[in-house]
Amino acid sequence: MSVAKSDIKRVTTHVLQEMKHKGEKIAMLTAYDFSLARIVDEANIDIILVGDSASNVMAGHETTLPITLDQMIYHAQSVVKAVKRALVVVDLPFGSYQGDSKKALNSAIRIMKESGAHAVKLEGGSEVGDSIKRIISAGVPVMGHLGLTPQSIYKFGTYSVRAKEEQEAEKLLSDAYYLEKLGCFAIVLEKIPAQLTKKVSENLEIPTIGIGGGKYADGQVLVLHDMLGLTKDFSPRFLRRYLDLYDEIKGAVEHYITDVKDGDFPNDKEQY
């Protein structure tokens, strides 16, 4: 029996807070298009992130930096149309919020109004505090992002684990407190030591979402294309592949080509 749309309980920022308090882990995945977002949502994912990782997996760029605000809105529109349950969070892309809180607010408002998404995410701590404060003051929920921040890749020069040294770890912990105080509803912790994730998660009231941050976060996120095995050349330690769709899809395409070349497709039952 199908479930009516009105019977489906939406995941909200309040629901996520309750999940943390109950010790229930939060599951989050990326999605960038209608078809895959519908599948992910029907599987009962808690959060769908329309990530700027679309720059890599959808557009083929080396980094997340080239993707534009208009492109993020397009992907978000496609995802929102498919989603009935999950909280949809959209990344503010590089250049749309740094150094100018008014621009940051305008970027967030465009995403919310034009896509129908439920929240935005942006990278950084105290250095982007003015932008976060302004966005939240306008009623837009904000998810923070600390640790490895891919939009700052040229600053760091590497995708290696962050906050291994005491000084950087203390800065991250201080930034986490700061983001919570500003009103962020959750924080992504990317590629940091598991024990630091544990310390942050135990000391914050808001949920933490790990990606390469170990098992102590309140939830986990992966890039959908990575966990489905659609990407072949990205294999960090934290990635668990649940399928190998690259080879499966390639094999199906090769099978189709053979059937067409041999005159086997279409057959008598597949024509009018």
Q: What features would you highlight for this structure?
A:
about 270 residues; alpha/beta; 11 helices; about 40% helix; globular
Low-confidence segments, ≥5 residues, pLDDT <50? Answer: 1-5
Estimated structural class: alpha/beta
CATH topology type of the largest domain: TIM Barrel
Total beta-strand segments: 8
- Count the DSSP helices: 11
**Fraction of residues in β-strands:** 5-15%
Global Rg? 20 Å
The H/E string reads HEHEHHEHEHEHHEHEEHH
- The domain tally reads 2
Distance between the termini: 33 Å
Strand order of the largest sheet: 1-2-3-4-5-6-7-8
Q: What percent of the residues sit in helical stretches (DSSP H or I)?
A: 40-55%
In the CATH hierarchy, the architecture of the largest domain is Alpha-Beta Barrel
Overall 3D shape: globular
Q: pLDDT average, as an integer?
A: 95
Could you name the CATH homologous superfamily of the largest domain?
Answer: Phosphoenolpyruvate-binding domains
Sketch the major β-sheet.
Answer: 8 strands, parallel, barrel
Main CATH class of the largest domain: Alpha Beta
Notes on the protein architecture:
With 272 residues, this protein is of the alpha/beta class. The protein folds into two domains: 5-241, Phosphoenolpyruvate-binding domains (TIM Barrel); 244-272, no CATH class. It has helices at 13-22, 34-42, 54-57, 69-80, 101-115, 129-137, 153-156, 166-182, 194-203, 224-227, 245-261; strands at 26-30, 47-50, 87-91, 119-121, 142-147, 186-190, 208-211, 219-222. The protein has an eight-stranded parallel barrel with strand order 1-2-3-4-5-6-7-8, surrounded by seven helices. The longest helix has 17 residues, at 166-182.
